[in-house]
Amino acid sequence: DSLALPWEKFYRSEYMGSGTQALSFAVAIAIQGKSKTPDPEVIIPAYGCPDLVAAVVAQNARPVLVDLVPNSPYMSDVGIRKAITSSTVALVAVGFLGMSERLNLLAEICAENNILLIEDSAQCFPPASSYKPFADCIVLSFGRGKPINLMGGGGLLLRRSMAEEAISNLRRYPVKALTIGKAWFVKRKIFNLLLARIPYYMLEKIPLLGIGDTRFHKLQHLFRLRIPKNLLLAGIHSFYSRPQIHLRYNTELKVLNKFGWRCLTNDLDGGSWQASNHRMLRYPVLAPSMDMRERAVDALYAAGIGASRFYGQSLDQVDGVSEWLTRGDYPVAKDFAARLFTLPTHEDVRSADVFLVAEILSGLRQG
Ligand SMILES: *Cc1c(COP(=O)(O)O)cnc(C)c1O
Q: Closest Cα to atom 14, ligand 1: which residue?
């Protein structure tokens, strides 16, 4: 127990049944902090996981979507400022496949407007707030296909100054223990093998695996989870054993920039912690057009590279989500969803695979 988790200086760790549950409890904390707000609203990005909506509506709050900055996964700060009303209780800063949101900017906006900043780091490890405590709370997911795969569970990290009160509220939820026996290890092993061997887009079609699932599921129950710390540390260790293959992709795919393709991790600040200590869950690329994206995914798949369209649509277009939203239009998120594809980054991706990807995509731009 002597090894520290990266956020422990600033945050207390609580564990819940899933990342969605942890996010939902973070929303409950925000609502409680502004108890005079009759119809609480929570700001989330217009491109993202439908679980964001489920977590918000489970607390009887309204999700308010904000469009993105063009050619990026970041929420538009102009859009955020327009979306804030006297009913806004929280802003969810969602990291994308290993790229954290611009937390310093969002923390400033939240402080000016007295709203809670929640860092959803389900796809990023470690969370950006471990280095500097930007967020009031941080959400982690230990689900399949997330950085720390414990086959389920989530983390809610609470800023130490607010933790006491929040944790006394958490006590109303039942506690379960994460049951890990032989079967659990075998299942995880099989899952990891499948992830490495079978094209991602085929895995996405196996509902039992529950990855790349872009359907809306209502959140029914919240419960706390007891997770042994050594299991968490082992999961972290295994994430860091992945290669930093995104750096290789950055180099080999650079030529495509001239032809209107964009490798999103090229925009990361080279001197930041993200560049040095960092692994991507998948490698995101924007094609110049939707047609090119379709051709890229097909050509890569034919060559045995597990490319994926990822969510494939903006959040408001996901079945079952729109009834929870007020009407709005999110052209940048739609465009992002139409042109994005992602490439694998797991430990079996070799330099030769990256060369092959570069060759295939370069061929497309000429064809
Ligand atoms: C997966 C995910 C969640 C939900 O986590 P679960 O553990 O699957 O409930 C929340 N936010 C983001 C950004 C995610 O990718």
A: 122
